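Retro notes, item 3 of 5
We never archived the inputs for the Fe4 H S5 complex last cycle. Fixing that now. Sequence and ligand:
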Amino acid sequence: MKCKKCGARASVNMRQHRMALCKEHFVEWIPEQTERFIKKYNMFARDEKILVAVSGGKDSLSLWDILVRLGYQADGLYLGLGIDGGVQYSSESHRLTDEFAKRHNLKLHVVDIEGEYGYSIPVLSDISHRGKGKPCSVCGLTKRHEMNRIARDLGYDVLATGHNLDDEAAVLFGNTLQWSSDYLLRQGPVLPSKDGLARKVKPLCRFYEREMTAYAIARGIEYIYDECPYAEGATQIFYKETLNQLENSRPGAKLTFYLRFLEARQSGNLFIEKDREAAYNIHPCERCGQPTSAPELCSFCRMLEKAKTVSE
Ligand code: Q46
Ligand code: ZN
Ligand code: ZN
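Structure as it came back at the time:
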């Protein structure tokens, strides 16, 4: 297999694009494509301030690396979740994120959830009864709340996350199986800012997971190999495997599934009533001021409230 650009031995073969590239051309191709997606989906402009949510994994660190290489003003945000049983997931991912920031001389904001609110994610999950032993829903809620809070408090224009095509296709697959129209309406490379929510973008949403792994390795990025110990057995992983089987027999199926969805949504062909969203009454939470559709407190503040009553 030869590199399409220079004819040297290829190191990455992308069957879905019928294209193979050598290492040097591959690490150039990824940022070029990213820039193309940023423009195509109107993610952000040159002069906007970007906050990248970094977890220490290959996708978010690569995203940060790419945005900086492209010359964007991108700072990082690391959230300390306190997930440290056995594998030391949080402390190791924090260390790697810190090292990356130092090595490239980048600004990293660190928020430790336990330091900020008094409970780590696993503890908060257990005492708030939002999923004993399965902290993902508490974790997701907390991450969304904190990312939005920091982006808003520190004056960032946009919040960028490292979701790749495998992530997006798995979520889309799940939402389609459940026919979750509200989620389907909101899924996409850009979620515009609205009612106090920061604009959210996913510049890597068209890259396969294996492409991001290849990029991180080719760029010598040190990332955490272990998944969060709670990720195992999650439904999303099952969806990913199912889609991988499909992809193996039909290269490009995953990308087509996602892109055709975006096209249908864009042209209003999803058969979902668009104004339904307007029915929600969004207003600021009485405690933290972030937008919510719940009567008084947002779900994050309600969860904390419950945790407090239980632990008192
Ligand atoms: S970090 Fe949090 Fe994930 Fe771990 S607890 Fe679940 S949601 S799996 S991306
Ligand atoms: Zn080449
Ligand atoms: Zn609140």
